[in-house]
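Sorry to interrupt, but I need a hand with the structure work. It will help me judge whether the discrete encoding reads sensibly. Write everything out right here, beneath this request:
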Amino acid sequence: MPTNDSRVRHSSSGLRVLVVDDNVEGAESLCALLASMGCTTAVAFDGTQGLAKAAAFHPHLALIDLEMPDMSGCDVARHLRSGPVECPACLVCLTGRGHPDDRRLCIDAGFDNFFTKPIRPDCLVAVVAA
């Protein structure tokens, strides 16, 4: 659902957002939604690709799936927070799991925020606007 709020489109203009998710259709849909909000997007379909894209793309925001086949989203966040690559200003975990222990695990790994899938459009707008 694209936003009609021109303030969000203006504030997100030039914002680079990386989406890392092994669900290809979901990741591409999220990128399309972010693009409709004025963001420049890049997508990766596993953690290894995500780290490489982060190094090349220098995102301001990264939306990272928790469970991927090659490495967990928490591992990706730890690498981004401790590695030589400039880390995105904001790391957001997206997951189908919503247990309080999962949230705690993600925040401890370096995520700034945690949302269960599907992310509500108002939550996405708030993350992008921030």
